[in-house]
Sequence to fold (160 residues):
Amino acid sequence: MVQIKPNFFRLSAIAFLLMLLVSCNKNVVFSDYTKLPEEGWKTDNRLKFEVDIKDNNALHNVFLNVRHADSYPYANLFVFLTTTYPDGKTSVDTLECIFADKKGKWVGDGAGDLWDNKIPLKKNLRFPQTGKYTFSFEQGMRSNPLPLILDFGMTIEKAQ
Fold:
């Protein structure tokens, strides 16, 4: 009987996990996070994400990714989004990110005292132009600086 060393199983498991991670991300066009300062997110701290859209025929899903502490004092987060298109035109939107249900229970994915929220912003969006888009976010809450928002990000995936 042939004995297989335990290292073979570890290497096989690692290879399988890597393949799984790569295959899960094949539809991701863009994904980035910004870590916010410990003192909080100030209203004048604009978070910018630049995305180069190469295919304006494909449909995309756009998500906001927000990590907050369990002791975040609000059930939501308002942000102002300024989108700059490749041709230089801009649009401004006010967005509300809901973090808790009506009973105050967090709705994201929790691990310890951290909560991750993947919030759908746009579904089946067709970008009108190819080229570089700039998405600029400002926090729109009354607290300045806004405490306990730890990371803020954005993901764009090809819709399936």
Summary: The radius of gyration is 19 Å. The longest helix spans residues 6-24. The beta strands are 28-35, 47-53, 60-69, 76-84, 90-98, 109-111, 114-125, 131-139, 149-158.
